[in-house]
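Appendix C: a fully annotated inverse folding record. The material below is reproduced so that readers can follow the format used throughout the book. The structure is listed first as tokens, followed by the designed sequence.
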């Protein structure tokens, strides 16, 4: 007869529930070649640095890779082949982590942006938290095209004059001056949103915080004079 509590230390029997995750995500059917879901959407040259932007069609996530260092995913740009004047001919060779080695990613046109109610172009890509949001600090394919998270931030700041937003030129821990808050509060929600969207365009073009802060204040003054 088993001693009291002995059953609690015996191995638990295996049931069909233990294989549920394996049946849903079988390793025999997953995409091992990441190039199957990635497309090359752009090549840029920043001073002496070559930078490529990649779009994951499955997750709608943008990845930025360069030759000088690996990105947060452990990816690095090794080579770009093709004629830069003919985007369709471009292919980027990317070294990826996880034993996948070097993969080739061909250029394809990004999925078209969609228009929201106020006419602002919004990309289907998601911002990645870098200095230039989803379109990267050097502008990406079109700095005028906002990502959904950028538009949401611009609209939120338009409703809350003290909230600030990521493109206004003020740092996360920097207090917005009372005189600036006063200017913003005297504008309508639509006026604020129009300015905020414009500021994201400047941010996507790669303008630094100092330049954006000056532009933001000038736009507020111009709108108040109308």
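Designed amino acids, in order:
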């Amino acid at each position: 007869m088993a001693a009291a509590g002995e059953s609690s230390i015996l191995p638990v029997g295996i049931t069909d529930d233990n294989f549920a995750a394996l049946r849903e995500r079988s390793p025999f059917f997953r995409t091992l070649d990441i190039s199957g879901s990635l497309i090359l959407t752009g090549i840029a040259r920043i001073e002496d640095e070559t930078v490529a932007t990649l779009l994951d069609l499955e997750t709608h996530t943008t990845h930025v890779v360069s030759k000088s260092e690996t990105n947060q995913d452990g990816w690095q740009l090794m080579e770009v082949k093709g004629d830069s004047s003919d985007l369709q001919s471009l292919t980027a060779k990317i070294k990826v982590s996880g034993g996948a080695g070097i993969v080739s990613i061909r250029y394809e046109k990004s999925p078209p942006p969609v228009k929201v109610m106020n006419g602002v172009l919004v990309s289907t890509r998601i911002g990645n938290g870098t200095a230039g949001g989803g379109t990267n600090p050097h502008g990406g394919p079109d700095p005028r095209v906002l990502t959904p998270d950028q538009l949401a931030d611009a609209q939120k700041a338009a409703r809350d004059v003290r909230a600030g937003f990521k493109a206004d030129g003020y740092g996360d821990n920097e207090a917005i001056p009372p005189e600036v808050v006063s200017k913003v509060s005297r504008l309508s929600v639509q006026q604020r949103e129009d300015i905020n969207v414009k500021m994201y365009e400047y941010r996507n073009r790669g303008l630094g915080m100092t330049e954006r802060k000056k532009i933001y204040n000038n736009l507020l003054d111009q709108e108040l004079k109308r």
